[in-house]
Amino acid sequence: MPYILSLNCGSSSLKAKLFLVSSPSSPLKVIATASASNVGAKGKKVVLEVVWEGVEAEQGGEVKIEKEQEDVQYTDLPGLVLGILTEGEKKKVDKEEIRWVTHRIVHGSTHTKPIVVTKKHTGGLKEMDALSAFAPLHNHNAVLAVGSCLDALPSHTSILLFDTMFHQTLSKEIYTYAVPKLEESQKTPVPLRKYGFHGLSYASVLRSLASHLEMEQKELDVVVCHLGSGGSVCQIEKGRSVDTSMGLTPLEGIIGGTRCGTIDPTLIFHHTPDCSTNVGEAGMEVSKAELVLNKSSGLLALAGTSDFGLILERMNDSSSCSKEEHESATLAYQVYLDRLLHFVSFYLFKLLASGSTSPIHIVFSGGIGERAARLRSDVVSKLAWLGVEVDEDANEKNGKGDEVVERISKEKESGGGRLSVWVVKTDEEEQCARMAREEVGC
Question: Which residues fall within 8 angstroms of residue 99, CB to CB, at 6 or more apart?
Fold first, then answer.
């Protein structure tokens, strides 16, 4: 039987899903979910996990392997995951059956379609690696993963899918930066403009919400908050991205677990005088500024941790931590809420001012968006003047069941409310598999 393996590479982790494709017209069926975490995390072992759908743990349905940091490089991860899926006593598929592998690539420049790569045709990889300068903590790892898969599965086809594709509908006045034009000798691998990211997640959320509401995607006006270790907000009008908080790189916009978000550009020169120093490894150039703003900032800089759940715990229960930890957690939460409201309210205003009378949906997604009931409640309470009110019972229960789409705002008995609020579980791996099927016709 043929399978699609969807890989989602982070800066220090990997997520994957294995889908069965029984026929071109059949729905995708999840066979296994896999992950690798803690790569490069000091004091922690690298953890590899595979869970087979419909198979009890004692019958080999779950596999968990821990390895020492020095024994694992990022390039090893795809091969290790493939090894669990296709080798040993607990394997469920043969290597030859994995016909297609999808790769979530953060930055794809102005590409509007996926790129297909095989062992004999790897030209697209060079272009993607050149874009690593604009997503140094993600693109390079994804390219390494593609190479690993080509070595491990030489007869398969890789499909590269880009987060930036969803935002190719941005208009010129939205994506243009007010900076001088570059001379010919200064040309960069991509035009210096806003691209936006998390596009595969936004596409997944839009598809799920439209299906739940029994509407066409092109009928929907939505403000989506993709909130995780990296977070962004997107204004979707009639099913198309018209504005988004991230820019040329994923650094612009709201703050993240370790990203600073939008700041005065000159701040880094005062904060880190040697900010242009190259601190990259393995042939990849990364400036000290990029490292500081991407990996040492955000919630981590404000609260001493990038764990949003821990920040909420310290803020809500001062007895669980020191006074300093309680105060820093409270400040971190307040800053996060402020920056999030900045973009949510701005995009709502633009949708309301567009002249459309269609309902407007606010969606929370991603690890934080799906789990942080307090954050969702605080955001919606700030929008009460627009006639929307959170259903506290639904909000507190949300995320604890298997539902993909759940409403957390109260229904207006008069029918006068234009705004509704939802939590939608995103699935970038399934979105990639769906788009790959459309691209290669499998």
Answer: 2, 3, 4, 21, 156, 157, 442
Containing H/E element for 20?
strand 14-20
Beta strands 221-227 and 360-365, pairing class = parallel
> For residues 231 and 298, what is the distance between their CA atoms, to the nearest angstrom?
11
User: pLDDT tens digit string along 32-42?
Assistant: 999 998 887 77
- Among residues 163, 221, 243, 427, the one annotated as catalytic is 163
Instruction: Give the global pTM.
Output: 0.94
Reply yes or no on whether the pLDDT at 164 is more than 90. yes
Q: Which domains does the chain have, with CATH numbers?
A: 3-170 (3.30.420.40), 215-261+297-424 (3.30.420.40)
Q: In the annotation, is 163 catalytic? A: yes
CA–CA distance, 279 with 413 (Å, rounded to integer): 58
> Which helix or strand (DSSP H or E) is residue 98 part of?
strand 98-105
User: 275-306 burial string, b = 16+ CB within 10 Å, else e?
Assistant: beeeebeeebebbbbbbbbbbebbbbbbbbbb
Range with lowest mean pLDDT among 28-32, 278-282, 418-422: 278-282
Sign for the CA dihedral angle at 112, 116, 120, 124 comes to positive
Helices (H), 217-264: none
Q: pLDDT tens for residues 78-99?
A: 889 998 899 877 777 999 999 9
Express each pLDDT in 49-72 by its tens digit.
999 998 887 777 898 999 998 998
d(CA 176, CA 182): 14
pLDDT at 137: 67
Q: Exposed, middle or buried, 353 (CB in 10 Å: 0-12/13-18/19+)?
A: exposed
- Extended strands (E) in 199-253: 221-227, 231-237, 240-244
